[in-house]
Amino acid sequence: MKNTFLLLAVICFNLLFSQQEDKNQEIYFPVKYVLKSSKDTIKTKVLNVGLYRNEEFSPATYIRQMTVLDPSGKKIKVKENDVKYMEIIDLEKVKRKFLNDPSILSKDVGLLEVMYNGKKTAWYRKSVYSGPIYTYKTDNTEYLFFRKDKSMIEMHFKIPGSILELKEKFRSYPDLSALIDEVVGDRDIIKILKLYDQK
């Protein structure tokens, strides 16, 4: 009886700590970036800093600074404001593009994720830390540009009522305005912007 209990305790202990090691395992995503001080494209891997899991992409990966591997495999830090352009491919093969172009917002705000770039509109996302740094909690500000009238809408999708300005912008298109009421995530906004491009 004691031997069986001891065996079960050892097995449980090993399973518990082997799962903990997996959770803390460092996950790297392929990245290519161009520094402001150079025209060379650097291809390497970036350490993903996931909010809940390291397998899922998080903006905390690049906010303020990112950890990349140099050619010898050594970790080095690259400041967000030093990067001009960046592409990251996550484990689900989703490619994310980022720009640091002061002409977009008429000021230098760091990297903006390119969410959509169509004929009539462009959508950029700026992510920032929104709590103690050790939590890696981030908030997003959305910037929607309308090329025809050269206007911009700044929104925070998590704030109730913030989408009303977008609904007002599409009031001439009742079909699009109705879709705005059903927005749940990024794909819904992209769908609306693609439909708007076809009008």
Number of helices: 5
Q: Report the radius of gyration as a whole number of Å.
A: 22 Å
- Describe the strand arrangement of the main beta sheet, using strand numbers: 2-1-5-6-7-8-9-10
Helix content: 25-40%
The helix/strand order is HEEEEEEHEEEEHHH
Beta-strand content: 25-35%
Specify the overall morphology: globular
Any low-confidence stretches, pLDDT <50, length ≥5?
18-23
The count of strands amounts to 10
> What is the end-to-end distance?
76 Å
What does it look like?
- The termini are far apart.
- With 199 residues, this protein is α+β, with helices and mostly antiparallel strands.
- It has two domains: 23-86, no CATH class; 101-199, no CATH class.
- Helix content is 26%, strand content 33%.
- The model is unreliable at 18-23 (pLDDT under 50).
- The chain has an eight-stranded antiparallel beta sheet.
- The chain has five helices and ten strands, in the order αββββββαββββααα.
